Amino acid sequence: MSFSNPTRLTTDGTLKQDPVYLTGGDLVYTLLESPVQMRLMRLKAGEKKPSPLHPDATTNEFEVTFTADGKSVAFVQSRGNLNMKLVLRDAATGKDAVFDPGGGFAAVRRPSFHPKGDRVCFAIPAAAGQEIASVGKDGKDRQTLTTGGINNWPAYSPDGSRIAFCSSRDGEFDLYVMTAEGTDVKRVVKLTGMQARPCWSPDGKRIAFTWNADGKYEIHAVNLDGTGLVRLSDGFERADYPTWHPDGRALAFVGERDGRFDLYSIATR
Amino acid sequence: MLEVGSFRAALHGGVSRRAFLAAGALAPAALGLRAAAAEPSAKPASVILLWLWGAPSHLDTFDPKPKAAAEIRGPFGTIPTKTPGVRFTELFPKTAARQDQFALIRSMVNADGDHLKAGSIGLTGMLEGKTAEVPNFGSIIARHRGEKELPSFMAIGRGNPRDVVGPVRGFGGGTWGRNYDPLLVGCSEFGETDIPALKLLDGLSPAALDDRRKLLGGLDRLNRAADQPAFDRWDATQKRAYSLLTTPEARATLDLSREKPAAREAYGQTSFGQSCLLARRLVQAGVPYVQVNWSQYVEAMTPNCDFGWDTHVFNFDLLPDRHGPIFDRVYAALLDDLKQRGMLDRTLVVAMGEFGRTPKINGQASRDHWPQCYFSLWAGCGVRGGAVIGDSDATGSAPLTEAITPGMVGATILQLAGVDSQARAELRVLPGTRVIHELF
Fold first, then answer.
1. In CATH, what number is assigned to the domain containing residue B127?
2. Does the residue A116 lie in any domain?
């Protein structure tokens, strides 16, 4: 795999994270709009100026995920003091379902919508560590998919049959893949340094992820069998939060340059 | 609004002057410092306190326990530092590469596990700070040195440290009065500065001060307002802020657009980063004590909560995502900046929170409050770079060596800042404690 020089997609430099591509090539990401407001923003394909995804939102919203058809969206919503809930919204009706992790200090993070929209998986603290769990599109029927260790950043494969995630079950954060039911867990590759935020190529053959290699976060990609490891980012102080374009020919991420955080895109061939 | 390079910088109510006049030389012998280390501090030091409100986990930062059980160790790897045998977690590579420039204390102990009480003890060094209003280290320095042309105690942040219950008692002068409170300056990620005490004064919005003509007009209006009886109703903080605003040098110090773009970029476009750059400018201009608050929604995730480093949930997501990379970049930039400007030998930089976090990972896959053991970082003013003071046990639960207390922190800061033991006794602050001589 080769890659191109990055194209800068935003210019404000403000802290941002977790971009995701929609089917048409639009990007939705989280922006630290003010010290008290994290907002979901939408950057339409080919445009320079983003706009709020939910202009009327007054609470912090972040870590958005969509179904393949874009008809349903899920995101994390902060509703209180160290309390974050999962909101599942039907884009057509605007009707919300909520998965509530409970009162007090409790949170759900890093949701990933099943491409067909039947379930959402996410990371949630558990009695021992942090697990990957899933709920139905009504926010009910919670199912535990992992046990042991700190598990985080789950991502459904494009066909919905597998989940990539990272886990400390073998010591430090490494990259794993399991079935959508939580079975057949396999470590993809053993690397020194934290791996985080996996995302699938549209053909389901490769996974891009962030690797803290030698003290620097860089975007890498690897085949499911652990071969073909390649670094995709270069020249950044930090490259993080990869998301693959639906056509498979580009990958976007948040790059930090000169202390500024912007979205960049690189072509992948 | 000024445009400099890729950064915006607003000129707003001002601060600064060339006024760092020594209030008396230190007595190295009394400190028990090595002569070589003490020599650069012939004048009282200036101090920058990076107040990591909310309390960072010591195990996930600068006192990792890679050989401990998984429920203690956490998921982060460790990396070597510039000092052989000393390791940090993988989240702090720039800091690790500069360990030869600062000392690390791994045996800090606070006397309380409540943010407000421990925070007050941490900022005053006095146990009675839990329940009584005793003065902040900066307030003591301000009283000892007296008010010069610049405030002697300034704080940077969107507010004084607080939690959902209220503000920390030890943020300012306490019973000494508001004259010894810090003059608070806000600083955005774009380097826009503002003085909240001036927000009640008409015509002093940043937009009104973005060029010389408007600035002068604003000041004319302000002067007219000051002639009115209303001036008498301003409180001491507002009057101090106003007096600063009328001083060109003071205004210039708050204008980060005067920095070279490369310098601003080195600190990064975060509020904590630009706040630390502002702290360096204030110290350079003569402010003897600057407290930078990682608080009041700085890089926050939940609204209506001064979250800071209080990672009760998703500790292992927040730290690699935000807190670690931001701190690592900014701390390294600050040390580099001070060193390159020749300021590090007369500027003490201390970074710490109010306590540590539980060695055992809690039911939320995070860590709770742990005052029994935590860390602090010390640089400048003859502090031995590369030193590791104290040690903690195999799980980071308790010090194996003598506990270093906030009182000892305060005595050390004040001693270097020219408030010696006799002066402390006269001010009736920090009795029965000692300087951390191991640092020198």
1. 3.40.720
2. yes
Give the structural domain span for A220: 7-267
- Over residues A5-30, the pLDDT tens digits come to 899 999 999 999 999 999 999 999 99
Residues of B in contact with A194 (CB under 8 A): 75-77, 90, 320
Rounded Cα–Cα distance for residues B329 and B263 (Å):
12
How many distinct structural domains can be found in chain B? Answer: 1
Q: What is the pTM of this model?
A: 0.90
CB B18 within 8 A of CB B218: no
Q: What number of C-beta contacts closer than 8 Å exist between A and B? A: 135
pLDDT at B163: 80
The verdict on residue A30 lying in a domain is yes
Cα–Cα distance, B120 to B127 (Å, whole number): 8
> Are A194 and B90 within 8 A, CB to CB?
yes
Q: What are phi and psi of A206, to 5 degrees?
A: -135, 160
Q: Is A138 exposed, middle or buried (0-12, 13-18, 19+ CB in 10 A)?
A: exposed
Low-confidence residues in chain B, pLDDT < 70? 1-42, 199-238, 295-306
Number of domains making up chain A: 1
d(CA B395, CA B389): 17
Those of residues 208-247 in B touching chain A at CB distance below 8 A are none
The CATH number of the domain holding residue A257 is 2.120.10.30
Count CA within 13 A, CB hemisphere, residue A183.
Answer: 2
**Six-digit token pair at B35?**
């002569």
Dihedral pair phi/psi, residue B7, rounded to 5°: -105, 145
Domain that holds residue B70: 2-439
Q: State ipTM.
A: 0.95
Q: Is residue A44 part of a domain?
A: yes
**Packed helices B324-340 and B271-285: angle between N→C axes, nearest 10 degrees:** 20
Mutant choice from B4, B59, B72, B90 vs A, greatest count of A C-beta within 10 A: B90
Mutation to test the A interface, candidates B194, B314, B328, B337, most A Cβ within 10 Å: B314
For residue A260, give both structure tokens: 């500024």
Q: Tell me how long chain B is.
A: 440
Residue A2 domain-assigned (yes or no)? no
The encoded tokens of residue B274 equal 């630009």
pLDDT at B19: 23
Indicate the residue type of B221: R
Whether A213 and chain B come into contact, CB under 8 Å, resolves to no
